[in-house]
Design a protein that fits this description.
The chain contains 11 helices and 12 strands. The longest helix has 36 residues. The radius of gyration is 28 Å and the shape is elongated. By secondary structure, it is an alpha/beta fold. Strands 1, 3, 5, 6, 7, 9, 10 and 11 form an 8-stranded mixed beta sheet that branches. Strands 2-4-12-8 form a 4-stranded mixed beta sheet. α2 runs parallel beside α3 and α2 crosses α9.
């Protein structure tokens, strides 16, 4: 009888141990499936902005990439690989604020490539952490302005204005003072964003110099020397994720919205539709409508080509504002 009870106890112990082992094995297998195959696996989104002059069109398209990275819940951190000499003042500021809003939701790491100058550098200030490459050209804080307003100075006698500066926006002295205000705003933005990391005075910052990547790090204009891979690792660290995938945001946005988001530097160059592909064209049309419902007109830079001249009776053309955060030193 005692021997029978011992055998039963040993059998029950074996079953218990086997059950515990099965539970542990199941948890391990479940964990592996979750981290490597589950659709909700956390990811680092990578946005690649090749050498791009910042204008209305490129700002709109870059903004769509930033929006996608913000709205995709699986993306826990973002890397922006950036190269730009800057561009229009208002467009550059919009990209800075857009990037700043993104970092409020998830960490943003900037990787500065060949050149990130002026308005491009302003956009980079929206990130949490900035890498530069040793040979990157970085900085060029300042403003380029062409005195005068958005209308040409010579008009027929039939034109009457309500003030001496209505057509030009101000005297040359006024434009110089205006550009000085905008310059100070740019400098204070950099000083605010870089904080104690900055090891250069405001006066030195406003000399408009470009710095090699290593010097930019030494001066506190960037945080470290690194490349896109380093940016991904840093972004994951800031997000506190250990197992993660990579999302190519450019490819995802292109797949979702088609050619309208393909090129950040030449959005007007759209490929023609293939003849005879009515079904594909119909699907594309529905996608475009969905995009417009969510974001508004698809390319701001292309709107001006079809706008009616508000002064159609007058022999003049309306130009763009003449203030830029743009590196213009080529050839000098």
């Amino acid at each position: 009888m005692i021997e029978t009870l011992n055998k039963l106890r040993r059998a029950l112990s074996s079953w218990y141990l086997a059950g515990v082992a099965a539970v542990i094995l199941g948890l391990v297998i479940g964990g592996v499936i979750f981290f490597f195959f589950a659709p909700g696996r956390p990811a680092v989104g990578v946005i690649n902005i090749p050498f791009t002059v910042i204008d209305e069109g490129s700002t709109f398209v870059i903004g769509r990439h930033l929006d996608y990275a913000m709205q995709d819940d699986s993306i826990k951190a973002v890397v922006i690989s950036l190269s730009s000499p800057g561009g229009g003042a208002s467009s550059s500021e919009r990209l800075y604020f857009h990037t700043s809003r993104l970092r409020e939701e998830k960490p943003v790491v900037i990787v500065m490539n060949g050149m990130v100058a002026s308005g491009g550098f302003m956009m980079a200030m929206g990130g949490n952490y900035i890498f530069a490459q040793p040979s990157s050209l970085v900085g060029n804080v300042g403003v380029v302005g062409i005195s005068g307003g958005t209308l040409p100075p010579v008009f027929p006698e039939i034109i009457t204005t309500t003030g001496p500066n209505k057509l030009t926006g101000g005297s040359r002295q006024h434009w110089v003072a205006l550009i000085d205000v905008i310059k100070d705003r740019f400098a204070k933005m950099v000083i605010h964003e870089r904080g104690d990391r900055l090891r250069i005075t405001e006066a030195q910052l406003l000399e408009g110099n470009l710095y090699a990547g290593q010097d930019a790090v030494s001066l506190g204009l960037a945080d470290a020397i690194g490349y896109t891979g380093d940016g991904v690792e840093k972004a994951a660290e800031l997000a506190g994720i250990g197992r993660y995938g990579i999302v190519d945001v450019n490819a995802e946005v292109f797949e979702k919205y088609g050619w309208r988001a393909q090129l950040v530097h030449a959005p007007q160059n759209a490929p023609a539709a293939h003849d005879g592909d009515a079904a594909a064209e119909s699907r594309s049309g529905r996608d475009d409508e969905a995009l417009e419902d969510q974001y508004g007109p698809p390319l701001m830079g292309a709107l001006g080509q079809e706008q009616v001249n508000p002064l159609s009776e007058l022999p003049i053309e309306i130009g763009q504002p003449n203030i830029y955060y743009l590196y213009t030193g080529y050839g000098h």
